């Protein structure tokens, strides 16, 4: 992953856009695939707002085993249908080696969540598929741990890796996680891989998503992973941090004004 060995930025094609290089990419969508209507409405909202890909989980890593765990294969089916219908590539999480082939068959980018950042067997398996991997920083991981986790994927032959800063756990409890934005320019100076920021899980608070998104753009991130829900009040997971469609539009408008002057 080192820039010393590979000085040029890795650019990962994604639909009509690309992650890394010159573009600033916004990937958006609900935390989870809930219902066909929820997904379709949210997909339409993020597409209209200017997202380049649709995110949503069919396999959800929940703190409690009694919380909604995602629809699994049926969720993947709904998600890929929604993506095709709306004309957006899709990003979705895989949690287990046994599901890698199925998830990779549906996803344009396969996500590894914070909790699995050091699931080395899973990372190795993902190193052997021909799909880009979005690797999220573990909430107790140092930057070095993240870079070495990425190395597991590259070492197996898959160099299409995107890193994602999504906040780490600190002594601060007012905010869900502490979004480590200093990690962005630090990592970008040392690796050729693109770096996204997830201000949704990074803060857990809807009203902090806009300011932290602008900050992410200002510190050199290659894009964002943002949670948006057609009706966050009834979301099955992460409603408190999910943007209303109108807030997503406002975020995209502010980004549109900021990016040209950076
Ligand atoms: C997610 O993006 O849906 C998610 C579960 O994030 P994280 O793994 O960063 O908690
Ligand atoms: Mn979520």
UniProtKB/TrEMBL annotation:
Keywords: Transferase
Listed GO MF terms: aldehyde-lyase activity; transferase activity
Domain called DAHP synthetase I/KDSA: residue spans: 20-251
GO aspect biological process, one term: aromatic amino acid family biosynthetic process
UniProt protein name: 3-deoxy-7-phosphoheptulonate synthase
Native organism: Allosphingosinicella humi
């Amino acid at each position: 992953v080192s820039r010393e060995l590979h000085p040029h930025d890795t650019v990962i094609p994604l639909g009509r856009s690309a992650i890394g290089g010159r573009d600033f990419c916004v990937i958006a969508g609900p935390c989870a695939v809930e219902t066909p209507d929820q997904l379709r409405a949210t997909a339409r909202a993020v597409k209209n707002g200017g997202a380049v890909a649709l995110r949503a989980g069919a396999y959800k890593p929940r703190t409690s085993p009694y919380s909604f765990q995602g629809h699994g294969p049926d969720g993947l089916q709904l998600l890929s249908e929604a993506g095709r219908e709306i004309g957006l590539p899709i990003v979705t999480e895989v949690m287990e080696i046994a599901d890698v082939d199925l998830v990779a068959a549906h996803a344009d980018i396969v996500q590894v969540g914070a909790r699995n950042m050091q699931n080395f067997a899973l990372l190795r398996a993902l190193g052997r598929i021909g799909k880009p991997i979005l690797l999220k920083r573990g909430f107790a991981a140092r930057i070095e741990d993240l870079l070495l986790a990425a190395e597991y994927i590259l070492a197996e032959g898959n160099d299409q890796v995107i890193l994602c800063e999504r906040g780490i756990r600190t002594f601060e409890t007012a905010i869900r996680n502490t979004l480590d934005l200093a990690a962005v320019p630090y990592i970008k100076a040392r690796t050729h891989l693109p770096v996204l920021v997830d201000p949704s899980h990074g803060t857990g608070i809807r009203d902090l998503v806009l300011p932290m998104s602008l900050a992410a753009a200002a510190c050199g991130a290659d894009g964002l992973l943002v949670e948006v829900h057609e009706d966050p009040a009834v979301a099955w997971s992460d409603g408190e941090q999910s943007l209303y469609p109108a807030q997503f539009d406002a975020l995209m408008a502010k980004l549109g004004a900021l990016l040209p002057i950076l």
